[in-house]
Amino acid sequence: MSRLVFDAPDESATQAFGAALAEVLPPGTTVALRGTLGAGKTRLVQAVAAGCGVPPEDVTSPSFVLVQEYHGRVLLYHIDAYRIADRQEFLELGPEEFFESQAITLVEWADRVADCLPPERLEIDIEITGPQSRRFVVNAVGTALQHIPRKLREHLPAARLA
Q1: Given 43, 56, 99, 153, which is the most exposed site by the fewest CB atoms within 10 A?
Q2: Which structural domains are found in the chain, ordered by start?
Q3: Using an 8 Å Cβ cutoff, are 53 and 76 in contact?
Q4: In this prediction, what percent of the chain has a pLDDT beyond 90?
Q5: How far apart are the C-alpha atoms of 138 and 31, rounded to whole Å?
């Protein structure tokens, strides 16, 4: 597994991280976001969307509608599994349609539906390290995305491969 650690001291660094992700994620990538409430999962999705040409104010947490769709230079699906009761309810959303598309699919609270995610994915754990600071740990799962942490490192000199 290929892994990258990025410590963002403030929100502008989180924006830079999201912009870098938008640059290196190939179409068809699923990104599993994990972190506690308030860790910044939706904020990261906003940063990725902005990097794809979607106005950040158009990106909101899909907690009540479960799936949002954003059109930028690439199609983005934003799924929030926080209110998903179980595996069956998630599968009723038809996630395989999202996962098999050429869109980038970002799944918040991915740990709740881990067994439903595709075997090839990027996992990002977000840890709160201070009032504005976050640690992002990026793991490439499967073989197809192993190059992503290295490509991210090229865009983020402060990041480190682990």
Answers
A1: 56
A2: 2-161 (3.40.50.300)
A3: no
A4: 77
A5: 10
**How much is the pLDDT for 112?**
92
3-state secondary structure of 49: helix
Residue 161: in which H helix or E strand, if any? strand 160-161
Q: What is the DSSP string of 1-34?
A: -EEEEEEESSHHHHHHHHHHHHHHPPTT-EEEEE
Residue among 10, 23, 9 nearest 53 (CA):
23
Q: Which of 15, 34, 3, 8 is nearest to 134 (CA)?
A: 8
Cα–Cα distance for residue pair 43/47, rounded to 1 Å = 6
DSSP string, 113-159: GGGGS-SSEEEEEEEE-SSS-EEEEEEEESSTTTTHHHHHHHH-TT-
Distance CA(144)–CA(69), nearest Å, equals 24
Structure tokens at 17: 């991280």
Q: Which residues contact 143 (CB under 8 A, 6 or more apart)?
A: 120
For residues 136 and 161, what is the distance between their CA atoms, to the nearest angstrom?
12
Lowest mean pLDDT among 61-65, 104-108, 123-127, 143-147: 61-65
| Contact between residue 41 and residue 126 where contact means Cβ atoms under 8 Å apart | yes
